[in-house]
Write a structure and sequence with these properties.
Blueprint (H helix, E strand, L loop, with lengths): L1 E6 L3 E7 L5 E8 L3 H12 L6 E6 L28 H8 L4 E5 H12 L8 E6 L3 E7 L2 E2 L32 H5 L1 H8 L12 H20 L3 E5 L8 H13 L8 H4 E3 L6 H13 L2
Parallel strand pairs: 1-4, 4-5, 6-9, 9-10
Antiparallel strand pairs: 1-2, 2-3, 6-7, 7-8
Helix pairs in contact: 3-9, 6-7
The structure holds adenosine-5'-diphosphate and zinc ion (ZN).
């Protein structure tokens, strides 16, 4: 059996699958203190003969095996999780290969192999929800460098007339700060879900997301940029993003047809778990 753990900022999802990747059992628990969450996950997994595990965790996390923080959660406001040795804790209970990466990377991998990007090799996956996170796949492989990408914190050129610097405590005008769900909420004075489809805030939102896609396009030349997360359920933003992207990129590089280039995730909420199970299988094959 293969296991995938999707460790999100609000909830954990754990799934166990057979060799054909049919999910045989699934388990969810809220992201409480690790002393509560870890024993729950461990006793769930101990019911099965686990051969390998893939973990996709909220971050930032240590992904560089040469650094002391490898396998750990880095700075986070979540109680108990700061510097928590996630990988080390799992290894004490499971003597099996464990793939360790970010939550967005496992989702990107799921979309690559079984979602919107099947048949492609170079993609970027962005989730726009409580934060903005992104995973980059290059030649079929998840890209990690010295650390993992933090695409949500790409710095933006402000939209003309927009003096809202955003809600990121680290940066003025970073993508997450100006365009994640809480930024929409702060602009609107109400939950983003409650905004009308034709509210002009969606034009501002599309401008910043499009600028993010421009930056990613010139940096990585992906074949597709996929949006997931709660805010991406606002279907009306996709045409706005494509239009603004065209204007901002100004035909500088070749890109695929825009309705095939800037797309909604194909696997929805399952992208992470499916990607995780695929990675768990691949590390023991
Ligand atoms: P999380 O990031 O915690 O996994 P979501 O992807 O649902 O969860 O993101 C939650 C954020 O996205 C909140 O700020 C919420 O207001 C916003 N959001 C969620 N769903 C929608 C929606 N359909 N339309 C607009 N905003 C949404
Ligand atoms: Zn930031």
């Amino acid at each position: 059996m293969y296991a995938a753990i999707e460790a999100g900022g609000t909830k954990f999802v754990v799934a166990v699958a057979d060799h054909d990747l049919n999910i045989v059992s699934r388990f969810k628990t809220a992201t409480e203190h690790p002393e509560v969450v870890m024993p729950r996950i461990i006793s769930f997994l101990q019911q099965f003969e686990i051969e390998s595990i893939a973990v996709g965790s909220f971050g930032p996390i240590g992904v560089n095996p040469n650094l002391a923080n490898y396998g750990k959660i880095k700075h986070t406001p979540k109680k108990g999780w700061q510097d928590f040795d996630f990988l080390g804790n799992l290894k004490r209970f499971f003597d099996v290969p464990i793939y360790w990466t970010t939550d967005v990377n496992i989702a990107a991998y799921g979309e690559l192999k079984m979602g919107a990007a099947q048949g492609k090799k170079n993609i970027v996956y962005l989730t726009v929800g409580t934060g903005i996170g992104g995973g980059v796949i290059v030649d079929g492989q998840i890209m990690t460098g010295y650390s993992h990408p933090e695409i949500g914190h790409i710095l933006m050129q402000p939209m003309a007339g927009d003096d809202f610097k955003g809600v990121c405590p680290y940066h003025a005008y970073c993508l997450e700060g100006v365009a994640a769900g809480p930024a929409l909420g702060a602009r609107a004075g109400k939950k983003a879900e409650l905004l009308e489809i034709n509210d002009p805030i969606w034009d501002t939102e599309a401008f910043y997301l499009a600028q993010g896609v421009c930056d990613l396009t010139v940096a990585f030349a992906p074949e597709m940029v996929i949006f997931g997360g709660g805010v991406s359920n606002q279907n009306q933003i996709f045409d706005k993003i494509r239009k603004s992207f065209k204007e901002q990129l100004n035909n500088y590089v070749d890109v695929p047809e825009l309705d095939q280039y800037i797309v909604h995730a194909g696997l929805g909420n399952d992208a992470g778990i499916i990607g995780g199970l695929l990675l768990a299988k691949e590390i023991v094959q």
